[in-house]
Design goal:
The protein is α/β, with parallel strands linked by helices. The chain is 45% helix and 12% strand. It has one domain: P-loop containing nucleotide triphosphate hydrolases (Rossmann fold), CATH 3.40.50.300. Strands 1-5-6 form a three-stranded parallel sheet, covered by helices on one side. The protein starts with a strand and ends with a strand.
Length: 189
């Protein structure tokens, strides 16, 4: 599971992990659009989305598949819920905290390039960015987060930081939502 401001590099990191491990990449933004077309991000919509994604994660872990849950786990209670789902299947959870200066992520998140790369219908507004970042609960020491510098996200950097061998020589950084074959050791990131 991932934590970081919008524009920090969560989806790029998730795609890299998917390419390195074959873990199933559950991309919440993609799934939201698939479920709701033109998302509103209202509470009821988000609740339905995350209930669905948690059930999907449960199903995949029960089938011994590794999962990359690509969303911003802003709240400790949500991270703890995913840990409890993983624990039921003896799956290891890894919390990846992608840290970048807030003004850099603001610039990224509000850019048209970010919207295009992430297949968003619209560019994020400053109001939405501020609302999301205001509520981020930073990971606590007992969560043992792996901290990545969001200005250095490359295949080699992520592979080294996560201790994953055999990094491919090049990564385009283009996010893609797709399901892939299961990795050998189930893990929920």
């Amino acid at each position: 599971m991932l934590v970081g401001y919008p524009g920090s590099g969560k989806t790029t990191t998730s795609q890299i992990i998917h390419e390195l491990t074959g873990a199933v990449h559950i991309w919440a933004d993609y799934e939201r659009r698939a479920m709701f077309g033109a998302p509103t991000h209202k509470y009821e919509e988000s609740r339905a989305l995350y209930d669905h994604l948690n059930q999907t994660t449960d199903m995949l872990l029960s089938d011994s598949q590794s999962v990359i849950f690509d969303t911003n786990f802003n709240f400790r209670k949500d991270r703890d819920l995913l840990r409890s789902i993983a624990t039921a299947y003896h799956a290891e959870t890894v919390l990846i905290w992608i840290k970048v200066d807030k003004e850099i992520t603001r610039s990224r998140a509000l850019s048209n390039t970010h919207a295009v790369n992430n297949q968003y219908a619209d560019t994020m507004t400053a109001k939405d960015f501020d609302r999301i970042t205001k509520h981020l609960e930073e990971p606590e020491a007992d969560e043992h987060p792996i901290v990545l510098n969001g200005t250095q996200i490359t295949t080699r950097y992520v592979a080294k930081a996560l201790g994953i061998a055999a990094a491919p020589p090049h990564h385009t950084g283009e996010p893609k939502a797709r399901k892939a074959p299961a990795a050998k050791n189930k893990k929920s990131s």
